[in-house]
Design a protein that fits this description.
The protein is an alpha/beta fold. The protein has 14 helices and 14 strands.
Length: 425
């Protein structure tokens, strides 16, 4: 395989490592010596241009807050620390918990969000409290009935660290976990340290803004759109600044920002953030496809193409076929064992697509435009953050008409969002 192809593949897969970079430099030096021997000045100049270009690309890779230990270790020295982490909380190949313990930080407790500490539990599955076999630390689940740390959970804790890879959508529950953790920290006078990570859907803002007075739930607690365009650090600042914590309490918050990142950055997520978002394609499609969850349409749970295909047992829905079966992360998938017809979206350009209602409208129309399309109208409304989307679909409105209805609230949110940005748009 050529070095040009190796470098391109490494960059696209997020595996452009220092080792590969040094090997590439060695290759360039060797090529340079051969070029000079042959008197090929043009090749010599080309080698310099290639070296400079690859150096810039390597330098520009986003560096999550967790990697910047020099920025936050002084804050943790001599403190009793709790972590809100899962399987994505990695520094290279080492988990944040293991890294901090090896550096002598007094980690006392680990809080785990939906999908658990290791990230293998089904969506919505009950997570038990347990003990981590590797570190011996107590694991406290922040899912189910125990979504918010209690005063007893935080007793003796000086600093709580939040370090979880999010995907930039309101109904992805890690942002709700952050709100409850931040609220508990504020109420118990515990410092919250957010080790920020890039948002793979952070390059745009779109969708209806949730009405908390009617549709607040764990899949959406605050007045933000479906695609909110924030990192978790920025959202934490918004929670404080907008007074969205209970009784308008304000948390002692510090964010360790991502380095070499803007909201226009193309982000590769190296570790699947949850069992049914296995790759970048599924993460890019997730904002548009999650609304299918409380409908008669499968999003591919129980296949190896989760959130990359859509289908229903109606042959009129499309030519692509799949059959959901029990698999890790989806042991009882919707439409289990039923042949589904629909669309394969694995080659769709998600960056161009953004948040789209086109698939939702298409499947609604192909299956008869009936109210029975919604298996749980109330949950659909919670995901949408409003009942206006469902009612508009039933009324036969176009995507343009639907978007016009939510535009004023969305525009107001975009202006408000600017006050909390850490990274350039």
């Amino acid at each position: 395989m050529s070095w040009v192809l190796r470098i391109r593949l490494a960059i696209n897969n997020g595996k452009f490592t220092g080792f590969l970079f040094l090997n590439f430099i060695g290759y360039l030096v060797n090529l340079n010596q051969r070029a000079k021997k042959m008197g090929l000045l043009r090749n010599y100049k080309l080698i310099f241009v290639l070296f400079f270009g690859i150096s810039q690309i390597a330098y520009s890779q986003a560096i999550p807050g967790a990697y910047q230990t020099k920025s936050y270790l002084p804050i943790l020295q001599g403190k009793q620390v709790a972590l809100v982490v899962n399987h994505t909380s990695m520094i290279g190949n080492t988990h944040l918990a293991d890294s901090l313990l090896s550096l002598g930080i007094q980690v006392k407790r680990i809080f785990a969000p939906e999908h658990g500490f290791r990230g293998t539990a089904d969506a919505g599955a009950h997570i038990d409290n347990e003990v981590d076999s590797k570190t011996g630390l107590a694991l406290v689940s922040l899912y189910g009935k125990h979504k918010k740390p209690t005063p007893e959970d935080l007793q003796g804790i000086d600093v709580v660290i939040f370090d979880i890879q999010d995907v930039g959508t309101r109904f992805y529950t890690y942002s709700s976990t952050l709100l409850y953790v931040q609220e508990a920290c504020a109420e118990n006078k515990v410092k919250l340290l957010v080790l920020d990570r890039p948002n793979p859907n952070g390059h745009y803002v779109d969708g209806p803004v949730l009405d908390p007075s009617k549709f607040a739930s764990f899949v959406g607690l605050t007045a933000i759109p479906i695609v909110h365009g924030l990192t978790m650090g920025e959202y934490a600042k918004m929670l404080n600044g907008e007074g969205w914590l209970a009784n308008k309490v304000v948390c002692d918050l510090q964010v360790i920002p991502v380095s070499s990142y803007t909201h226009k950055s193309v982000v590769h997520v190296p570790i699947a953030p949850s069992p049914n978002l296995p790759n970048d394609q599924s993460i890019g499609l997730y904002p548009s496809l999650c609304l299918f969850e409380p409908t008669i349409v499968s999003v591919g749970r129980g296949t190896n193409t989760q959130f990359q295909v859509i289908g229903t047992p109606n042959p009129a829905a499309g030519e692509y076929r799949f059959t959901p079966i029990p698999l890790p992360g989806a042991m009882d998938p919707p439409l289990k064992g039923q042949l589904c017809y629909g669309k394969d979206l694995r080659t769709v350009s998600t960056r161009k697509l953004g948040f789209s209602l086109s698939y939702l409208i298409e499947m609604f129309e192909k299956t008869g435009r009936k109210e029975s399309f919604f298996t749980s109208p109330s949950f659909f409304d919670k995901l949408a953050g409003t009942d206006s989307l469902r009612l508009a679909l039933l009324a036969g409105k176009s995507e343009q008409e639907i978007r016009a209805a939510w535009k004023p609230a969305l525009d107001a949110y975009k202006e408000m969002r600017k006050r909390y940005l850490i990274y350039q748009d």
